[in-house]
Amino acid sequence: MKHHYFFLLLISILIKSNLTAQSYFQQEVNYTISVKLDDVKHELQASEKIEYVNNSPNPLSFIYMHLWPNAYKDNSTPLAKQLYQGGETTLYYATDEEKGFIDQLDFKVDDQPVKWELLKDSIDICKIYLNTPLPAKGKITITTPFHVKLPSAKISRLG
Fold first, then answer.
1. What's 50-116 look like in SS3?
2. Rounded distance, CA 59 to CA 135, Å?
3. Alpha-carbon distance 140 to 109, whole Å?
4. 40 phi and psi, to 5 degrees?
5. Which of 66, 143, 150, 159 is most buried by a 10 A CB count?
6. pLDDT of residue 155
7. pLDDT at 138
8. With a threshold of 0.90, does the pTM exceed it?
9. Based on C-alpha coordinates, what's the Rg of the chain?
10. CB neighbour list of residue 79: distance below 8 Å, 6 or more residues apart
11. Considering the chain, what percentage of its residues have pLDDT values greater than 90?
12. What's the CA gap between 139 and 81, in Å, rounded?
């Protein structure tokens, strides 16, 4: 009788593992960036076009976007706090001139303006609200201009 329970448990684990493996998906993101570098001011002026394919089985009503340059904006960012806790104080005590950021964002989805916001506790991540849900296997085009003030190279290789 013990062997039957073990066998049933093993089958149950294999079935659950197989179902989990089949539910994995990877979103598809293709992008084109046009950028102009001002190497005197250490700034970028750019525009980006992102093709986003929803490979999940569920419709999406919003998308998160990482705005990495904002991690260098001030000493309240998760990156600044993490570096400071690890003993690295360059970003935490950097001057405004040494810090970096991204701004002038104006997100559009399929040429239509959309609402978006920075996350409350992570200004380097934004949430873009889609005007209509993106169905499974659906595709949208996200566009935005942007400006980046590059942080000092003594803070990060981003600089």
1. EEEECCCCCCEEEEEEECHHHHHCCCCCHHHHHHHHCCCCCCCCCCCCCCCEEECCCCEECCEECCE
2. 4
3. 7
4. -80, -45
5. 150
6. 86
7. 98
8. no
9. 22
10. 71, 72, 91, 124
11. 76
12. 37
